[in-house]
Description:
The complex is a heterodimer of chains A (822) and B (106).
Chain A: E1 4-9, H1 13-25, E2 30-36, H2 48-52, H3 66-71, E3 74-78, E4 82-86, E5 91-94, E6 99-101, E7 104-107, E8 111-113, E9 126-128, H4 132-144, E10 147-151, H5 155-166, E11 170-174, H6 187-199, E12 203-205, E13 210-215, E14 221-226, E15 231-233, E16 236-239, E17 243-245, H7 248-252, E18 261-263, E19 274-276, E20 281-283, H8 291-305, E21 319-321, E22 329-333, E23 341-348, E24 353-360, E25 363-370, H9 376-385, E26 422-424, E27 429-430, H10 431-441, H11 446-453, H12 463-474, H13 496-505, H14 511-517, H15 529-540, H16 554-558, E28 561-562, E29 568-570, H17 581-593, E30 598-601, E31 607-612, H18 617-626, E32 639-644, H19 658-668, E33 678-683, E34 697-702, E35 705-710, E36 722-727, H20 730-747, H21 754-761, H22 763-770, H23 774-788, H24 794-800, H25 806-809, H26 818-821
Parallel strand pairs in A: 1-2, 1-7, 2-3, 7-19, 9-16, 10-11, 10-16, 11-12, 18-20, 32-33, 33-34
Antiparallel strand pairs in A: 4-5, 5-6, 8-17, 13-14, 14-15, 21-22, 22-25, 23-24, 24-25, 26-27, 28-29, 29-31, 30-31, 34-35, 35-36
Chain B: E1 9-13, E2 21-27, E3 30-36, E4 42-46, E5 60-62, E6 65-67, E7 74-76, E8 92-98, E9 101-105
Antiparallel strand pairs in B: 1-9, 2-3, 3-4, 4-8, 5-6, 6-7, 8-9
Amino acid sequence: MQKKRLVMIGNGMAGCRTLEELLKIAPGMYDITVFGAEPHPNYNRILLSPVLAGEMTVQDIILNDWDWYRDNDITLHAGKKVVKIDRTARRVIAEDGTAAEYDRLLLATGSNPFILPVSGKDLPGVIAYRDIADTDAMIEAAATHRHAVVIGAGLLGLEAANGLALRGMQVTVVHLAAWIMERQLDRPSADMLQASLEKKGLAFLLEKQTESLIAGADGRVAAVRFKSGETLPADLVVMAAGIRPNTTLAESAGLYCNRGLVVNDTMQTYDPKIYAVGECVSHRGIAYGLVAPLFEQAKVCANHLAHYGIGTYKGSVTSTKLKVTGIDVFSAGNFTGGPGCDDIVLHDPSGGVYKRLVIEGERLVGACLYGDTADGAWYFQLIKDGQNIHAVRDHLMFGQNHLGDVGHKGQTQAAAMPDSAEVCGCNGVCKGTIVKAIKEKGLFSLDDVRKHTKASSSCGSCTGLVEQILASCIGGAYTPASSTSKPMCGCTDMNHGDVRTAIRERHYIDIPTVMRELQWKTPNGCASCRPALNYYLISTWPHEAKDDAQSRYINERAHANIQKDGTYSVVPRMWGGLTTPGELRAIADAAEKYQVPTVKVTGGQRIDLLGVKKDDLPAMWADLSKAGMVSGHAYGKSLRTVKTCVGAEHCRFGTQLSMGLGVKLEKMLFGMYSPHKVKLAVSGCPRNCAEAGIKDVGVIGVESGYEIYVAGNGGIKTEVAQFFCKVASDEEVMEFSGAFIQLYREEGWYLERTVHYIDRVGLDYVKGKVVEDAENRRALFERLLFALQDYRDPWLERAEADAKSELGREFRTLAVREAMKA
Amino acid sequence: MNTATTEWTPVCALEDIPRLGARVVSAASGDIAIFRTGDDRIFAVHDKCPHKGGPLSQGIVAGNTVTCPLHNWKIQLDSGEAVAPDVGCARSFEVKVDNGQVLLRT
């Protein structure tokens, strides 16, 4: 069958992003032809201002170079403007006669600058600020002329003015409204911005209406005349009074336009074979001129071009950031307020800081920041997510740093950090490396930064910082992913919650079915979604779903912990941290027999044998089994240890038998897999020697019974466990903590610790399900016991398995054949 | 030392390698990982990640890539090349299936 033909008109950011998204999900589906009016490959239009300011070169801002088109078999007609669309013959024709036929047409014609309809607008020296040619013209004028007038004090006008001033021109910015950037800033912040731009050498004339442009003796523009009668010398006039969707071509083809080419939520125009994205489009009455919404449109459009038929574009909340080096301005949402809104304002004129937050009900709806924009990304996220801010309202103004203990997430403000400062401690990535990657590789999202620099890709505690750096580098182009609806991974658009629900409601019991029914985009998923799916299946349908060894991370497949040199570590279980001379003797013997280089006592009250060769594991386990020892699951997203103190058995302060209860809990939970690792502790008195305050479930004995604490964590970011309930007996501890863990097992997202699960759903919710609802608690507890029944020690199973069997062959290196040495 | 033999050496049966999994062959030049994809294609790559030497055979196989268990680099099984933006290459070897037997040429 012949491939379908896709023709794209407009070779800019929105169009090319759509192609990139399309190539990602449906490579090879279309023969693609692109027409671009400019003689350049796709470049980052938002970075024209740094080019004008001399901070970057044109080469720096290329997003897709010529090779990209060639590598993806895209026919590119650069410098050819399409002048006609013949919708009946499904053909487009360019100025020079080049024609192409299409099955699907994508219009991404962008926008045109609005040129004031005044006399003299066509004089030499009068230009708009839109593309590389305009930028070149400005750079050239700056070298030979003196007086520049920029008409329009919006984002683009100010960036143009700043660039021209940096190139040595005397620049006056003329504006119709009473203050600059009136669409993005309120009056106080605009006044502060104006003052600092004046210090940089710009002059401003506000509330001035241009009447005409006057030519000089050489025919070039020489002055601007205002309605008020004054004139101003000008050798260069830059029109930056806004943009208009470029719909000339669409209109000539009879497509319905109304202040933009009208599209529906799937980015389709009134002609079903024609789609449109970008600044030329009018969606629900709005034409967007910022890049972030265009990328969202691109994703939806690609999805429909690829016949996936899911995903709709529902409009965007936008944010603005001015790219003038040394000046920080940020605004988002409704920052002017109105009836029913509260403003929180911080205004420090001499300190150069202004912040205004607009709150409607319990939600942040707008923000306008000047001078200190470090929290812009955070405010934007709160606005987009529509998150309830009641609990943080008192501290909102002071930023994310002031929300109590946030670990090293917000320790430093990204913009103020030196390039040499380390951002990601796991992978040793400093700020300079991240900034360089963002600029050179044209990165727009957190995922891109993770892929290219590895920053924030391990423990994730620096994610907030990386997002701040991204926002400070690319400004308005940065769209923080909505934290609640983030897809599981690149293989699917569904989030963890949706996938869990589908598995439960539709009773899926194997990975291929899940991937087929939920329309996974990759044939076998990836190393991040497969282990998650496997966990969701076996935890939702115990004894029914098949545990897929190849979807387990190696540690859980080999039942030992892989080390940096490819050897493994072996940790036998010591129930409640108790052991015997016989067990210790067997461990010592095994350590000698298999030449274990390192023997270490762990934090979980047991012994780690490090540096074991994989081939030796089954034999070593067989030896340990003979002494009655089983796997400690020190390698799994599973029950790890139940740490105990000596307790009333021996301790003179002990009130409860903590060792005995610890052993009972550990035996009850043996072999339990969970979204992430689970650690417990039992202390015999409030002195809490077992450190129960930083465990997923911590039990503290008191005279009258036990206090149960949940969701503590001693890891990346120390979290103190929260009080859950108080109970009287060992049996109740087992039921309440078992039910809590089962709830987490059923509802937690893969790799989410109990503390993050509770952050997400709320402690009250969990108490409601476990403490307050006895019937539900018993049902949860029963489901836990059912899931764990008949669990066999994985070490013994593998020690006994035949070397050729599925379980046994994992550990066998294939023999060297003599023939191979020949 | 001989750089290449023309001889194909039998290493195991196709069925001895789990689908979406790997086995390790210990060879004179170092361990070689033999992978079997979801659609039963077979690839052989030096069992050492170009990043920090992790054993690729222990990684998760998906499509025609394997993810190294140490730091999640993705390696393409056909070429041994790391998936961009990472850069590096593990040596790949010729391998084929004949009559259910996996044959390797080093």
